[in-house]
Amino acid sequence: MGKYIKAYLAEVEAFLEGIKDRSADEIITFLDEFEMKIAYFQHERLIHLLVTLTFAILQIFTIFAIFVLPYPASLIFAIMTVLILCLLTGYIFHYYLLENSVQKMYHLRDDILKELGTREAE
Known about the structure:
By secondary structure, the chain is an all-alpha fold. The protein has one domain. The protein is about 90% helix and about 0% strand. It is built from 3 helices and no strands. The protein has helices spanning about 1-15, 25-70, 70-120. The mean pLDDT is about 95.
């Protein structure tokens, strides 16, 4: 997903660089598709936020269980804590990428709308 987002952002930035040579209809068509993709990425971001929060809560639970349970069970929860921490770290980095990419898309959308607004004002 990370490669897909980066490639799509590069495509949008390339469109923005050559936006002066495009007609208003082309810009509107591109903007419609772009807004649809933003909605998809927002949904992806929401799902990953929920997954990340779930793993964070699970991490807190396993840490708590280490201190509450007796030795044999606490060892199992200690191993689970390490495994969940590895997964949680990956989810946090992925969510960070999604969050920053979607916010960048908002700014790119604003730039496209600004260009479209100057065309309509002329």
